[in-house]
Amino acid sequence: MARSRFLPDNFTLALVTTVVLASLLPASGGPGRFFEGLTTFAIGLLFFLHGAKLSREAIVAGVTHWRLHLLVFACTFALFPFLGFALKPVLSPLVTPEIYTGVLFLCVLPATVQSAIAFTSMARGNIPAAVCSASASTLLGVFVTPILVNLLVVPHGGGGAGSALDAIGRILLQLMLPFAVGHFARPWIGGFTKKHAPVLKFVDQGSILLVVYTAFSAAVIEGLWKQVPISALLGLVVVCVVLLALALTSTTWIARKLGFDKADEITIVFCGSKKSLASGIPMAKVLFASHAVGAIVLPLMLFHQIQLMVCAVLAQRYARRVEPAAIATAPLVNPAEAAAEATAD
């Protein structure tokens, strides 16, 4: 029997299990250093494989739709940070200061890639534009996110990030260098990554689980769960729901006001309202002190699951619309396939 779209996916269950394991058996001392080194290697491998899977043709396919891309980038790197700060007086009392720092970090992250494209396809949106916008958002985030972290997040309790140039340098070295090497190696290994995509997906998810384990191990040793009451966790659910609702409403309203057609509206909604777990967790490890990462990524992990459930419902609603046959020829994606594709993004 098919799993309900409202139930957590396997990767989310694995994330929860990893957090529980780190809470009960945190890695410290020698084992902690071993897991730190293993995590650094796994993140490099993760971005190497992402580079190998990225097609230049797919990016070029939608690059000329500049109005759409500018709007997506504005929603990702301007609207979200604005919402995070504008709502701080209302939402921050619901959580601890450390967790709201994580909310601000969530707001400055790039958009997802796999899930944005999967849901755009499922909803019969502009798929080439989604590929271009989502991929470009990830690359742009390498430079924009560290700057926004230093401007908006660090003054409010982030700590450990240093200057924007130092942060960009660390991300370029630890994330983008493996990504670039993988992309330039695509002519030789692209076929292998495509053929073994189901197997390589475990590398993607496994590297994220390693980061979560090491991050929460350090945070637990520093007393994370003693500092985070149950009321703050419940408050975080409210914060994430409010942020996502405002982002979805705003992107839909702006797209319609600016005269975009329905296919472009879908792309703007799914690319401009989502935040990347796959990019955010490795960035947090690079940008913040080890003991702070657990609380920093907690909002992102929760927001990730909420956005998947809500966007799956929204994509199916878009897909049921009646339009001319020429538009309806866009490929459909089965909801289960879309969820499977999106889980680690």
UniProtKB/TrEMBL annotation:
Q: Which UniProt keywords apply?
A: Membrane, Transmembrane, Transmembrane helix
Query: InterPro entries this protein is in?
Result: Na+/solute_symporter_sf, Put_Na-Bile_cotransptr
Per the UniProt record, which residue ranges are transmembrane?
Answer: 37-54, 66-87, 99-119, 131-155, 206-225, 231-255, 283-303
Indicate yes or no for the key word Transmembrane: yes
Q: What is this protein called?
A: Bile acid:sodium symporter family protein
What species is given as this protein's source? Variovorax robiniae
